[in-house]
Each structure stands twice: as structure tokens, then as C-alpha cells.
Specification:
Elements (H helix, E strand, L loop, with lengths): L1 E11 L2 E12 L4 E5 L4 H4 L1 H11 L8 E7 L11 H11 L5 H4 L3 E2 L2 E2 L5 E2 L4 H10 L4 E5 L3 H4 L6 E5 L2 H8 L50 H13 L3 E4 L6 H6 L1 H4 L5 H14 L14 E2 L7 H5 L10 H4 L4 E4 L7 H5 L2 H6 L1 E6 L2 E6 L3 E6 L18 H9 L3 H4 L4 E4 L5 H5 L8 H18 L13 H6 L9 H8 L5 H18 L6 H12 L25 H6 L1
Parallel strand pairs: 3-4, 5-8, 8-9, 10-15, 10-16, 11-12, 12-15
Antiparallel strand pairs: 1-2, 2-4, 6-7, 13-14
Organism: Streptomyces angustmyceticus
InterPro entries: AAA+_ATPase, CHLI-like, Mg_chelat-rel, Mg_chelat-rel_C, Mg_chelatse_chII-like_cat_dom, P-loop_NTPase, Ribosomal_Su5_D2-typ_SF, Ribsml_uS5_D2-typ_fold_subgr
Pfam family, one: Mg_chelatase
Length: 555
């Protein structure tokens, strides 16, 4: 009779659960039983492990073999348990010393020839192992760099089961062929990417980022884009086709500061589980950008799928930008699913196989046309849509969803003079990003002793009671609240945008101009006195009779 145990990790969403892998050998008819709530792919590990052990030069025990995965109540799936199962069996057969396996964490899939194949989710698995107190981890060589991102953990990257047996038995380690040295493609990397997602879905491709200097005109939209990046405020672009809504949204990630160490680990863990982490780039340093098609389903947006849910677009955009183009063409039910993660910063998906909590703190950018044909309100547009069609089209963006959007910008068609003047006076992304970084640092210094980092995260009660605006500056917003033009949530969001405007202008607290500007960005109605100290130093024109609140009321 022989017994041995080692450990592996079961992933539930982006969180790991330490699983003890136990192997027991007893006299009897040769059989291999796997228990502990395994799924189909894990049940098939019996054949993979048997062939890998034999082809690695070890003897397969001809006894009654039982392998248990504990705790048995946690659903377990995937092929990442193969390496731990094989070593537990060899320990029970006394080919390896069982005492050498007890404190080891093993993650990896086995090929029939004994090679160790990489699996997804190595980073969150190693994070869970480190939290549980494990300090030695064995992973496939291709994911050793990803596992090494976790501090305080000794990582051993191996290519085959033969190498691991030699290391644990204190024998000479055999050399294994590396296809990368011979210039051949490595088929083992296929296990790191989910088919159909692409290697870098949601992540910046290469070092090139779209430059804001390529955008002609759109001064108000550019200024709102800067505010959105500085305070992480959600933004909505409305305008006719070809006005530049998508161009502006694509340049928003370039304005965001680089990810901190903690944020990089969180983003990398999500993309590792989702199978979108590009090989050779184990750590994500730049904010992700995810732009799902307007026909995306609920499961693809917030997470889901058969069995245990998988991360959706809101999680792939964690600490980055989620851009929903043609928002009015999306299903209203799918769009309304964004309301909860916009407030909480995470999404909880419940399915019959289990419940999963995934991070989803993203900056939302919406874009839509003014009507089905897109020409309503444009000069010489010739819109032929019926008023009822326009109302139904705009109603697809629900009030509760839009109440969570801080900035609403009308993107007008670009004039010929602005197109001709392209490149003269247009600020580049690096210039605007420097101002955004400075504003973020001012906000971080003010919020140093709090759990918040940006203005959009601060509760309205704290802003009203702990950090005060200039006397009388909040009066216009309070009047809009009394008139029903603003909700209580809307008032808080106006206050947050005003603080961001003050940070961009280098002021200690918001002024009346900052509050008026925040109201203008939220309602689209110009108000207040002109100022020359707006974001980026841009000046605003004084309100005319047609654009002032009084002029609007008279019309």
C-alpha cells in the first residue's frame, strides 16, 4: 500500500482555490479512479497521465489506484492538474519520495510523450498558492516568467515530466529539445490562447498607439476626453457618422497613466484566465482597450458561458477602456447590464455550475448617432426619420444608464478649414497625457489617506462634507437638482467632474466656473461666465442667446 499527496490550484473565475491531490495504491485489479468533482477534460487526464508516465521511462503501478482532489465540493476543470496527478502517482509508487511532494505546488498539462504543456491562468493560480503559504511552484517553462511575477515564490520551469522526475529524485537532468532554438513554431503555446479571441484581444498591439494629434478640430470633445482620462469619468459621444467619435475613443487609452504594479497584476491575471495574454509578454503595463461589436451578447459582455462563467468584455477592460460603438444599436438589455459594474467595480455572475466574482473597474466610452440615419440636426443633412423613430432610437439608451455617464459630448462634423489646418496647433497624446498625469497626482495627494485614487471613485457624501468647493460655487447644480434636471447621483457626478477640472487647472478646489463647466459637459447646455483656465488651457466662448439656459427657455 502506498500513499502520496501534492497540491495544485483550481480556478473559479479569476480566483484560485488550492486543491490537494492525493494518490492511494492498494492491492487489487489494476484500475485508475479519479474522484473529487472533476469535469470531462479532467477525467480524460487519466489517459494522458498514464501515457506520459510510461513514455517518461517510469513504470506504471499495476494496482488499484485512486486519485482524490480535495476539497471535493469545489468544481474542478481543465488540464492543469495533470502534472500534480502524475507526481502523486509516482510518489505513491515510491518512484519519488512522497516527502518531497508535500509542499510543492504543481500546475501544467501533460502530453502523451511526457512533455509539459502550458495552461491558462498561471498567474492567478500562483497568487492563490502564495496566499496559502506555498513557496515552491512547478510550472511549464513557457509560463515561468508569468509565475515569477508573484513575489516570494520560487518558480521551477520544466519542459517534460522526465526533467521533473530527475530534479525530485536528485538525478542528472536530461536535456529536452527546444523548438524555439531551431526556429520552428512551438505547438505547446497553443494552450495559452482561447480559439477565436486572438492573442492580444483587449490589449495594446505593439508600441504604437493612435495619436491625438491626428484628430482635426473637435476642441470640446478633446477637452472632454482629457477630463475623462484625468478623473476616470465615463463619456458619451453623440454625432453624425464620420465626425470622429471612434477616433476620439481609440485615443483615450493613450491618455491614461501606465498601470501600477498592483493594477498590472490584476489585469494580467484576468487576461491569463481569458486566454488573451500574448506569449512573451507576461506582464501588462498599459491600460487595456476593449471594443466589442454592438451585436455582443450578455455573456460576452459581462461574462458567462457553459459551465463556470468566463471573463467578459467588462473584465477584459479592467483598469482600461471599454468602448461601445453604435450604442443605440446594442440590445437595451445588454447595455443595462453595465449599470451594476459601473457602480461597484466588479461583476458577479451566477450559473448552475457556480458563482464567480470578476473585477470590472473600467472607463466606459459610448458612441451613438443622433438618429437611425445619422443626419438629424446636421446642416444640410436631409434627415428623413420620423420623430417617433428618433425618440425610439434615443430611448434605447436608458435613463439609469445615462445617469451614470458623467460627460456627454456632441461631436459635430469637422469643417474644411480645420481639416486643411491638420497638424498646426493640434496637441499630441504625449502632451495631453502629461497634464492628465499631473492631475492624477494632485488627486492622489489629496486622497492619500483614503481608499480612493481618482475623483470618480470618491462618494458624493465625502466630497460634500470633507472637501469643500468655493462658497457659492455649487449653487447652479443645486438649482438644477431642485428643478428635477439633475438626480442626486447626477449632482455627485457633477461635483466629481468639477474637482477633476480644478486638478487639471492646478487649483486647490473647484470654482463656480468649474461647476458650470461640469454641468455643461453633463447637460450639453452652455452656462456661466467664460473662463480662460479650462482643461488644457483652452478658452470657452461666452454663451449666446441661442445656447444660454435663458435663451433655451425663451425658445
Amino acid at each position: 500500500m502506498g500513499f502520496a499527496r501534492t497540491c495544485s490550484v483550481a480556478l473559479v473565475g479569476v480566483e484560485g482555490v488550492v486543491v490537494e491531490v492525493q494518490a492511494d495504491l492498494e492491492p487489487g485489479v489494476a484500475a485508475f479512479t479519479l474522484v473529487g468533482l472533476p469535469d470531462k477534460s479532467l477525467i480524460e487526464s487519466r489517459e494522458r497521465v498514464r501515457a506520459a508516465v510510461v513514455n517518461s521511462g517510469a513504470e506504471w503501478p499495476q494496482k488499484k489506484l485512486t486519485v482524490g482532489l480535495s476539497p471535493a465540493s469545489v468544481p474542478k476543470g481543465g488540464s492543469g492538474f495533470d502534472l500534480a496527478v502524475a507526481c502523486a502517482v509516482l510518489g505513491a509508487a515510491e518512484r519519488l519520495d512522497p516527502r518531497e511532494l508535500t509542499d510543492l505546488m504543481m500546475i501544467g498539462e501533460l502530453g502523451l510523450d511526457g512533455r509539459v504543456r502550458p495552461v491558462r491562468g498561471v498567474l492567478p493560480a500562483v497568487l492563490a498558492a502564495a496566499d496559502a503559504g506555498y513557496r515552491q511552484v512547478v510550472v511549464p517553462e513557457q509560463t515561468a516568467a508569468e509565475a515569477s511575477l508573484v513575489p516570494g515564490v520560487s518558480v521551477l520551469g520544466i519542459r517534460s515530466l522526465r526533467q521533473l522526475i530527475a530534479v525530485l529524485a536528485d538525478e542528472p537532468v536530461p536535456d529536452e529539445e527546444d523548438p524555439r532554438e531551431e526556429g520552428r513554431p512551438d505547438p505547446l503555446l497553443a494552450g495559452l490562447v482561447v480559439p477565436g479571441t486572438g492573442a492580444g484581444a483587449g490589449l495594446p498591439a505593439g508600441d504604437h498607439t493612435p495619436d491625438l494629434a491626428d484628430v482635426a478640430g473637435q476642441h470640446s470633445a478633446r477637452r472632454a476626453l482629457e477630463v475623462a482620462a484625468a478623473g476616470r469619468h465615463h463619456i458619451f459621444f453623440k454625432g453624425p457618422p464620420g465626425a470622429g467619435k471612434t477616433m476620439l475613443a481609440e485615443r483615450l487609452p493613450g491618455l491614461l497613466p501606465p498601470l501600477s504594479s498592483k493594477e498590472s497584476l490584476e489585469v494580467t491575471a484576468v487576461h491569463s484566465v481569458a486566454g488573451t495574454l500574448p506569449p512573451g509578454g507576461p506582464l501588462v503595463h498599459r491600460p487595456p482597450y476593449c471594443a466589442p461589436h454592438h451585436s455582443a451578447t450578455m455573456a460576452s459582455l459581462v461574462g458567462g458561458g457553459t459551465g463556470l462563467p468566463r471573463p467578459g468584455a467588462v473584465s477584459l477592460a479592467h483598469h482600461g477602456v471599454l468602448f461601445v460603438d453604435e450604442a443605440a444599436e446594442c440590445s437595451p438589455r445588454v447595455l443595462d447590464a453595465l449599470r451594476q459594474p459601473l457602480e461597484s467595480g466588479h461583476v458577479v455572475v451566477a450559473r448552475a455550475a457556480g458563482m464567480m466574482r470578476m473585477p470590472a473597474r473600467f472607463l466606459l466610452a459610448l458612441a451613438a448617432n443622433p438618429c437611425p440615419c445619422g443626419r438629424h440636426g446636421t446642416t444640410g443633412g436631409g434627415c428623413e426619420c420620423r420623430p417617433s423613430s428618433i425618440r425610439r432610437y434615443r430611448a434605447r439608451l436608458s435613463g439609469p444608464l445615462m445617469d451614470r455617464v458623467d460627460l456627454r459630448i456632441a461631436v459635430e462634423p469637422v469643417a474644411r478649414s480645420e481639416l486643411v489646418a491638420l497638424g498646426r496647433g493640434a496637441e499630441a497624446t504625449a502632451t495631453v497625457a502629461a497634464r492628465v498625469q499631473a492631475a492624477r497626482e494632485r488627486a492622489a495627494a489629496r486622497l492619500a489617506d483614503t481608499p480612493w485614487q481618482t475623483n470618480s471613485e470618491v462618494p458624493g457624501h465625502e466630497l460634500r462634507t470633507r472637501w469643500h468647493v468655493q462658497p457659492g460655487a455649487l449653487a447652479p447644480a443645486e438649482r438644477d437638482l431642485e428643478c428635477g434636471l439633475l438626480t442626486a447621483r447626477g449632482l455627485d457626478r457633477v461635483l466629481r467632474v468639477a474637482w477633476t477640472a480644478a486638478d487639471l487647472a492646478g487649483r486647490d478646489r473647484p470654482t463656480l466656473d468649474d461647476v458650470n463647466w461640469a454641468l455643461e459637459l453633463r447637460t450639453g447646455v452652455r452656462r456661466g461666465a467664460p473662463t480662460a483656465a479650462g482643461a488644457g488651457g483652452l478658452t470657452r466662448k461666452p454663451p449666446t442667446a441661442a445656447t444660454s439656459p435663458r435663451g433655451q427657455a425663451q425658445r
